[in-house]
Amino acid sequence: MRLARGAAVKTLVTGASGFLGRNLLETLGDDAVALVRSPLPGPVAQVSGTPLDPDAWLSQAQGVKVLIHSAGMVHHSRQHADEMVRFNIDSSLAMVRAAKALDARLVLVSTSGTVGCFSHPTIEADEHSLYAEALVGRWPYYLSKILAEQQSRKLAKQLGVEMTVVRPPVLLGPGDTLGRSTTNVARVLNGRLPFIPTGGIAFTDVRDVAHALAVLAKKSDWRDTYHLSGTTLPLRTFFERVGEVAGIRVNRPGVPTLVVDGLAKLGAHVPLKKLPDPVVLEMSTCHWGFKTLWSHEELDYRPRSHRQTLSDTVAWLREAQARQTPLAG
């Protein structure tokens, strides 16, 4: 879906070859500029470089008015996490400096996990909520995103850069060529769901997030935070609904939190074949509560039916598997 034409706002997108980035380029249309390491197919305007080294490409980005920093490393593990943590923090700070140099505004795409993770299923975080660092700070990815938000806001204030943070939950939908965001759906399709923990999941459609970000790029006034909430379900309900749209019966046993936590602790010392990383196991016992106070009205954010998102995700994954595209999960 492309955004209706209005005043042109040249918008540079990092992570342009990723799941969200490619959807965002399509939605922005002629207003998009992709920051890429390798050339992308198609007519989109492109700048060669990386988020970590804007000095190498700033001269090619003159006229850009908005930077959307959607690039990030996602690795739910404590193994070899240092590179991910440094990239997520340092690239965000570099993009603040790039925005200053270009006299542009910055959208930092973060994650619902910075604020929306709880031990109980009845709590929800909105744009005013405090960080959930006491719970998610033990997981390197979410800690890196909290630190990236905090340090980027501080630097943006010092430099006088207008910046907002946008937090989506898990992104689903067609086109996840790297198989990172749609792993839980692929587990059902590939018969690799060993059991079902007691936690929950929050997710939304990547196409709807791309539309909201494109609307945001054209707004004259920004709030400092936007949540792009979607659907929150217990994991059992989620996996069963994936099974429904896929025509697969999901009959995996439920496992109590105490047992999952025990497996996670064991897995930290002894590799457990066919089980997710200990961090993923720990996350699967938590609940994700997430809502927005203003994104529906201000960003025209209207998430489609979660069943439609799941159906489209399943259909795309099956087509990709038929083409023998490598997918995680």
**Structural class by SSE content:** alpha/beta
The fraction of residues assigned to DSSP E strands is 5-15%
CATH class: Alpha Beta
Approximate helicity band: 25-40%
The main sheet orders its strands as 3-2-1-4-5-7-10
Pfam families: Epimerase
Protein name: NAD dependent epimerase/dehydratase family protein
Domain NAD-dependent epimerase/dehydratase: 12-220
Organism: Myxococcus xanthus (strain DK1622)
Topology:
Elements: E1 11-14, H1 19-28, E2 32-36, E3 45-48, E4 66-69, H2 82-102, E5 105-109, E6 117-118, H3 133-136, H4 140-159, E7 163-167, E8 170-172, H5 183-189, E9 200-205, H6 206-218, E10 225-227, E11 231-234, H7 235-246, H8 257-267, H9 278-283, E12 287-288, H10 295-298, H11 306-322
Parallel strand pairs: 1-2, 1-4, 2-3, 4-5, 5-7, 7-10, 8-9
Antiparallel strand pairs: 6-12, 9-11
Helix pairs in contact: 1-6, 2-4, 5-7, 7-11
GO molecular function, one term: aldehyde dehydrogenase (NAD+) activity
Protein name: NAD dependent epimerase/dehydratase family protein
Domain NAD-dependent epimerase/dehydratase: 12-220
Features:
seven-stranded parallel sheet, Rossmann fold, single chain, 14% strand, three-stranded mixed sheet, 329 residues, 11 helices, alpha/beta
Describe this structure in words.
One of its GO terms (molecular function) is aldehyde dehydrogenase (NAD+) activity. This is NAD dependent epimerase/dehydratase family protein. It comes from Myxococcus xanthus (strain DK1622). The protein contains eleven helices and twelve strands. It has helices spanning 19-28, 82-102, 133-136, 140-159, 183-189, 206-218, 235-246, 257-267, 278-283, 295-298, 306-322; strands spanning 11-14, 32-36, 45-48, 66-69, 105-109, 117-118, 163-167, 170-172, 200-205, 225-227, 231-234, 287-288. The protein has a seven-stranded parallel beta sheet, sandwiched between helices. Strands 8-9-11 form a three-stranded mixed beta sheet. Strands 6-12 form a two-stranded antiparallel sheet. The chain is globular, with a radius of gyration of 19 Å. The two termini are 28 Å apart.
